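Q: For a teaching session next week I want to show students how multiple molecules come together into a single three-dimensional assembly. I've collected the sequence lines for a complex. Could you give me the predicted structure tokens for the whole thing so I can convert them for display?
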Amino acid sequence: GNSVTQMEGPVTLSEEAFLTINCTYTATGYPSLFWYVQYPGEGLQLLLKATKADDKGSNKGFEATYRKETTSFHLEKGSVQVSDSAVYFCALGGGATNKLIFGTGTLLAVQP
Amino acid sequence: GAVVSQHPSRVICKSGTSVKIECRSLDFQATTMFWYRQFPKQSLMLMATSNEGSKATYEQGVEKDKFLINHASLTLSTLTVTSAHPEDSSFYICSARGMGLAGTGELFFGEGSRLTVL
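A: Of course. Below is the structure for the complete assembly, covering every listed component.
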């Protein structure tokens, strides 16, 4: 079945450091891929998405490219801020059922 | 973006009692809502899919008599944990898909409800 594997956290970085959170997936067909973010005390919010191979999703300085050959959707940001501290979830899904399958989430802590 | 609200955000109850959690879409009509359960340091586990006006579809291994889901209107879905026990303690999250977003996979999430059963 479909699954998502996400790097374990927590990830602790200094402000302005480069961020990579790895995400790989197993899926049949051609799912859409997503990154959701959960800030402390809040619900999950869609950060970015890609709906087909080679698509690049981007938002708020974050980027992720849908790589079919490596079944990956790694999240990157060139310079993190303290305000980026949150839990990041990689997910796959879409289609008629709209079911999302999530990774375990990665806690990012950015220190000033 | 669209807003989904859950209530209560935290609830503590005694073992054997039932607890109801509400999920409301505040500024859009949600044809489909999803209920997730999140364990510490684990991914969100989809429990069930509810469509307005019909019975919920439960994922394998989820007891439908234990977790009652009702989606009586386009803006409200409820999850009732019946005869709760300590092992039901968890973080429950709902999400909703608005009309017109079919097939995109984009969902809007509530803030979550933390249930603690004593």
